[in-house]
Amino acid sequence: MEENTNFIDEELNAAFINATSENSLCYYHSEKQVIGGLLREPELCENYFHKISDEDFSDSTLKYIFEKIKQRYTAEHKIDTALVIGDCQKFPQAAELAMLCFQEFVSTSDFPGNLNRVKETAKARRIKNVIEDMLKSGNFKLEPLKALINDESLMCSTVEEENTKIIDEFVQSLNKRKEVIYTGFKMLDEKLNGLRKGTLCVIGARASTGKTTFALNIAVNQMKHKKRVYFYSLEMTGEMIYERLCMYSCFINGKRFASCTLTENNLQDINLVMQKIKDDKTFSVIENTKTVETICNNIYSDKPDLAIIDYVQLISSVDRRFVTERERINYVVSELKAVAKQTKTCIILLSQIVRAGKDNPTMSNLKESGVLEEAGDYVILLNRPYVQDKTSGAYEPQNTTLILDKNKFGSTGTIQYAFDFIYQSFSETGYTGNEKIAHLKASKPDNGLTLIHSSTVDETDDLPF
User: Fold this and answer.
1) I need a surface site. Which of 238, 253, 257, 331 has the fewest CB within 10 A?
2) Residue 424 above 90 pLDDT?
3) Which of 308-317, 353-362, 399-408 has the lowest mean pLDDT?
4) Element (H, E) at 233
5) Where would I find the beta strands (DSSP E) of 376-429?
6) Rounded to the nearest 5°, which phi and psi values hold at 119?
């Protein structure tokens, strides 16, 4: 007996310890999250159903609910939550728990982790049961236990399958142009080669520098390419976002919105743009979404080409365990990074920066930086010194420096821009000062949305700073 027990190597011992020291509350939560994901997100069923079995659930009620899900999915190849809950009505407790799982489902980006935890726990539980049976019977044999370990290689085979898929996709993509998001700014796109799908781009700036406007300029450029853009506005109302969009795309002085002096031509241009957006379904403003879990579920479900979130410090979570703001932001950014990778959506995440001086910031100046620096595939910073010094006359209000401080796929560097507050637009160098503004007023933004009428441009207005 003693000789046989000495064979338990580190792997078997670890599995035994995991099983015997199981935190039942933690794993019960993971099992509930798996059930909730299957009920709430159809694509999770599509992608993961074949990897789940009844025996993965330690809770008998959750196992019963999964059996009902399996019956429905096997018969219909889809899940109707109402029908599954109806199937559970024979046991009211099961129906109530199914509804609770649906309501408490947190995040699609967490689903793979919860599923792995459930499967690893089930694996450890089965090994534990076999070891206990052997110890009780006094018949502790090496070969049957090793055979069981080999049978419980589900995770290994999953990794191998995933790796094979990645290799196949990589080989097939060679010498093929990758699908990217072009910002519409020529010099920036040359450095970036476009923003890759499935990446996280952080844009940081001080308050009032124009980071929302810069992101909106990028969003408008996607419309001519028929890319779907979701703009999550946590700070401004949807009305404010569309007002700025029209100032840029229709070349309308912002003062006209505030003073209610829009001309007939202005109104005609605005109606054309708004109708085109509604018809093409290329741009959506989401203003009442505050939690990262809802944002991630939304992106996972709809898979837009580009998601812009304004801004990270305002995103909350249904999880209340965070002690500091830094912990919350770390969690938020890691969730967004995961959903970008899984859905191939490019996410632009706006952020405040903390710096009192007028020198160009670096990514270490991002507010609660940490994970923002690490998780961002790209980090872009905007610096408009006039924002910090409006009285000395040392700085022109439109002069802006873009700092590409991190680029995983290419070069970094700085690009000079001019910011036109009246028409809410940025343009790259080639012009400076008033010469630049004159150029902006004389040209139509290349967004493919509407024509500009001559009465739209107000030549006499100065920058309202």
Assistant:
1) 238
2) no
3) 353-362
4) strand 229-233
5) 378-383, 399-407, 413-420, 425-428
6) -70, -40
**Rounded distance, CA 79 to CA 42, Å?**
7
Please say whether the beta carbons of 155 and 119 come within 8 A. yes
CB neighbours of 98 closer than 8 A, spacing ≥ 6? 35, 39, 65, 68, 84, 85, 88
Structure tokens at 168: 């196949």
Q: How many CA atoms lie within 13 A of 394 on its CB side?
A: 7
Which of 278, 355, 353 has its CA nearest to residue 313? 353
Question: Which one-letter amino acid corresponds to residue 22?
Answer: E
Q: What does the domain layout of the chain look like in residue ranges?
A: 2-172, 180-456
Q: What is the pTM of this model?
A: 0.65
Task: For 180-456, give the CATH class.
Answer: alpha beta
pLDDT at 8 over 90: no
Q: What digits encode the pLDDT tens for the residues 164-209?
A: 777 888 888 888 888 899 999 999 998 998 999 999 999 998 888 8
Q: Report the C-alpha gap between 262 and 255 in whole angstroms.
A: 9
Q: CB of 309 within 8 A of CB of 348?
A: yes
C-alpha to C-alpha distance for 451 and 268, rounded to whole angstroms = 10
Between 465 and 249, where is the model more confident?
249
Token pair in block for residue 259: 């003073």
Tell me how far apart the alpha carbons of residues 349 and 232 are, in angstroms, rounded to a whole number. Answer: 10
3-state secondary structure of 54: helix
Please give the class, per CATH, of domain 2-172. mainly alpha
Q: What is the DSSP string of 72-136?
A: HHHHHSS--HHHHHHHGGGSHHHHHHHHHHHHH---GGGHHHHHHHHHHHHHHHHHHHHHHHHHH
Cα–chain-centroid distance for residue 236?
19
**Is the model's pLDDT at 26 over the cut of 90?**
no
Q: Which residue has the higher pLDDT, 79 or 157?
A: 79
How far is the C-alpha of 380 from the C-alpha of 156, rounded, in Å? 39
3-state secondary structure of 141: coil
Instruction: Count Cα atoms within 13 angstroms, Cβ side, for 417.
Output: 29
What span, in angstroms and rounded, lies between the C-alpha atoms of 10 and 16?
A: 10
